[in-house]
Structures are given as structure tokens and as C-alpha cells.
Amino acid sequence: MVFLVVVINFLILVFFMATIVRIPLIWAMFTSFIGYALFIALQTGLLLLSFGRITVHMVQTIPIYGYIIQLLTGVFGFIIMNALYRLGIGFTFDFEKFRFRKEAIVVASLILAAGIPLGVLLYIGDLYINMTFLVICLSIFFYYSLRKENEENASLFIE
Predict the structure, then answer these.
(1) Distance between CA atoms of residues 85 and 74, nearest Å
(2) Alpha carbon separation from 35 to 43, 54, 61, 123 (Å, rounded)
């Protein structure tokens, strides 16, 4: 039942992005998925880099280890994102301007195709399988994001 918490939090984030931030629902799903996947990848990486000193079982049974991983995830996430921001690396584009036909169906299908196995993998809890799946998913989504960003930059020079 723990995996339902992830799904519920994901849906709350999607609806927040769609209603408060006012981005289209598909893009809200897309950015929420990338955020969750990066967060999970960072936590999985931290567990793998602990070389067995902190395991998934320890995190699940001894709360202090969960708090340590959460704290380290927040610290490293902040450092990485702050560095990317200072270097000017990120995505900013008009969400409405660059839609292609049936984009909503394609993106929703990708998110569902990636989200369902993600829930199953998190339920299983194998770190190496999680990391492999997340790297593949993030590669696909980052490729899509970079392609959209390049389309916007190219249109700026054409106008």
C-alpha cells in the first residue's frame, strides 16, 4: 500500500501544477514525472553510493536511516540544482506554443507507460533495476525536453 502514497503525491503535484502554476495538464504530468524520477534517481544513487552501509531494508525498518537519506537527497538536490541554475542550464519555454498533433496522447502514453512500471519497481525495491529503469526513462524524457527547447531556440532566430 505504500506505493499508493507515491501515486497520490504525484497526482496532487500534477493538479497543483495545472491549477496553480497554470500549465497544461499534459505538461504538468510531464514535469511532475521528471521531478519524481530525478528525486528517486538521486535517492537510489545515494543508497548505491553508501556501498551497503544503508540499505532499503534499513531505511524501511529504522526511521533514522530514512531521515538521513531524505536529508542527503535534499542537500545534494539543492547543490546540483543551484549549480545548474547558476550555469544557466534549464528549460524555459512557452508551453502552449510548441504543441504537435496528438502530442497529448503521446506524452500521456509515455507517462503511463513509464509510471506503471515505476510503481511496480518501487514496490519490489531492487536498487539496480530501479536505477536502470530510471536512467532509461529520464533519457527519453530529457531527449524530448531538449528537442522541444531546441525547437524554441531555432524559432527565435527565424523570426
Answers:
(1) 16
(2) 12, 24, 26, 19
Mean predicted lDDT score pLDDT of the chain: 76
- The pLDDT tens digits of the residues spanning 20-31 come to 676 777 787 888
Q: How many helices (H) and strands (E) does the chain have?
A: 6, 0
Residues 6+ apart with CB under 8 A from 71: none
Q: Nearest 5 degrees, angle CA 16-CA 112-CA 38? A: 65
Could you give the CA distance from residue 144 to residue 158 in angstroms, rounded to a whole number?
21
How many whole angstroms separate alpha carbon 9 and alpha carbon 51? 29
Predicted model pTM:
0.56
Q: Please say whether the beta carbons of 2 and 37 come within 8 A.
A: no
Cα gap 139→75, rounded to integer Å: 24
Cell 537519506, located at residue: 69
